Amino acid sequence: MRARHVAGAVAVAAVAVLGAAACSAGSQAGSQAGPPSSTAPSASASARDRLRGGLLTQAQLPQGFHLLTAEINSTTTAAPHGPASTVPIASMPCSELGVESFMTHHAPPLEDVAVGMEQVPEQISEQADDYGWFGQEALDRYAPGRAAEVMDAIRAAAQRCPSYANALDSSTTTQETVSVTAADVPADDSLVLRIASALPDDPEPYVSEQAFIREGDVILMVQKLVAKKPRAGVEAVLPAAVAAYRAATAH
Questions:
Q1: For residue 137, is it left (φ>0), alpha (ψ between -120 and 50) or beta?
Q2: Paired strand residues for 112
Q3: Is the pTM here over 0.90, yes or no?
Q4: What would the pLDDT profile of 151-194 be if each residue is shown by its tens digit?
Q5: β-pair partners for 139
Q6: Which of 183, 242, 251, 185 is nearest to 218 (CA)?
């Protein structure tokens, strides 16, 4: 993560813990771009190409936003990336709500793709309230009926963890407060997780957000990493992301 998005060394540590897995899609995409062409059926490859085609492009991003393809690769990763956890999302540790990878770890999709994006603030300062917008979009495709189960599990986990402590290291613990709302986008199902992280002796919490939109067997996720007094949340990108996916899958 980039230090200019938070103020102070402890805050940077919070970003690393809360958002480290958000960048995992990039590293995994680079190392696991899919099965060898000699063993992957052409129909499967075509499905992965269509999923990747549903990601936001630079032309589809709202004004002021930029893609970060060098940091989060948009190549299909051909999930799962490794052995799945035997712990379901609904009963996973509360601390895992703050990282994107809980889906691929606890409920691996058949395929997933991701792309990073940011909006740089006009003035970069440790004292400024506006730390810009930094996050990613991901598309996860599941077996028929599985995406609905995953959405229910995410909602159940968030409702089970309205508040919890999260140890960053041996001397720093944050207090996390979780809120759950529906996204303001028509969809088969939707929810937005907002996690406010209060650091010791800091009255202003850092806020991270994840929006989940289910379109049939695909879950579209937009994640905005932690910031103080955010000028804009996931809603700044979510409508464009949904429109891009629907346009790509309309034919």
A1: beta
A2: 140
A3: no
A4: 999 999 999 999 998 887 767 888 899 999 999 999 999 999 99
A5: 113, 220
A6: 242
